[in-house]
Recover the amino acids of this structure.
């Protein structure tokens, strides 16, 4: 009887801990969303633009987190899928009169197809070999974009009009673009959260933790690896489309291999496998380079690298892991 009571107490404690964690997540998410809705009405246009770009990078990092943090695959070419989404939207808007909302699913679908195509050969690769293949994608994309000048605008790129807010909203252009980016970000995070709670999420985590054990349990490694690449690319393509809306200009030099490396660094700093990791990583990617530029105009890259090293020394599991440890130390009422 004593053992049964102890087991019941342990089970009750586990359920209570899970409920407390869920309450924390819901409360933090609601507070963050409320702050996000309130922010553009209190900030100057430049700061609203910065927050809009944070949302764009957060969606791109969400896709990269799905691939690296949850599926355990490596990618040094995520910026290429971001560029594909951006150029798909730009070409559609520059040519025929395509409505802005239509460009989002088309850009996401094109990036998904490209990710699926590269995911098939990537199934047989892992580790450094997979990293080199994805890096090659980012390297050859820029000269490819410059070569097809009649479609992509070549080195000069394409200039596009930005979406204008409907009159009934009463919003300024920067606020309208911000809320478009916020809507895409919220939908993307909700989609990924639902995916990770499903059977697919459990399969991805099994794949990440131990491929051999996952295969024994019936997980189809090739299918889930390929789909992880495709879903990751789809989110990057959606982020690239919103980037085109916000910036109103695309050029090959905006999507060099440095973008892919910066995105991966931002995700690692934000926290691999954590839902908050992409948001924290996006804040890092957006604001830290400007801080580095202000600290040393001659060598901002050096300052940026040193800041990455400092953050990883203080928080080896990323900023999300550091925040989780700090919250865990807060005393709670029994």
């Amino acid at each position: 009887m004593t053992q049964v009571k102890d087991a019941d107490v342990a089970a009750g404690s586990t359920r209570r801990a899970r409920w407390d964690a869920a309450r924390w997540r819901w409360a933090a998410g609601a507070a963050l969303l409320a702050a996000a809705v309130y922010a553009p009405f209190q900030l100057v246009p430049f700061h609203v633009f910065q927050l809009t770009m944070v949302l764009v990078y957060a969606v791109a990092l969400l896709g990269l987190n799905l691939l690296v943090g949850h599926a355990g695959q490596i990618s040094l070419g995520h910026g290429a899928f971001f560029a594909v989404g951006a150029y798909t939207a730009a070409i559609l808007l520059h040519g025929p009169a395509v409505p802005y909302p239509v460009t989002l699913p088309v850009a996401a679908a094109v990036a998904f197809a490209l990710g699926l195509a590269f995911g098939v050969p990537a199934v047989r690769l892992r580790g450094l070999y997979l990293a080199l293949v994805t890096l090659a994608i980012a390297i050859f994309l820029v000269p490819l974009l410059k070569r097809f000048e009649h479609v992509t605008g070549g080195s000069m790129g394409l200039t596009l009009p930005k979406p204008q807010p409907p009159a009934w909203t009463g919003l300024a252009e920067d606020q309208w673009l911000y809320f478009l980016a916020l809507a895409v970000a919220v939908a993307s995070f909700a989609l990924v959260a639902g995916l990770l709670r499903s059977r697919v999420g459990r399969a991805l985590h099994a794949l990440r933790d131990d491929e051999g054990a996952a295969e024994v349990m019936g997980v189809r490694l090739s299918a889930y690896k390929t789909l992880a690449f495709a879903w990751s690319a789809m989110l990057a393509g959606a982020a690239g489309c919103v980037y085109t809306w916000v910036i109103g200009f695309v050029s090959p030099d905006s999507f060099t291999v440095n973008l892919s490396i910066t995105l991966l660094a931002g995700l690692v700093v934000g926290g691999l496998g954590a839902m908050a990791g992409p948001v924290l990583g996006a804040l890092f990617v957006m604001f830290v380079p400007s801080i580095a530029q202000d600290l040393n105009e001659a060598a901002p890259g050096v300052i940026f690298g040193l800041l990455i090293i400092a953050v990883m020394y203080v928080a080896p599991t990323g900023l999300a892991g550091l925040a989780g440890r700090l919250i865990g130390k807060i005393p709670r009422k029994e």
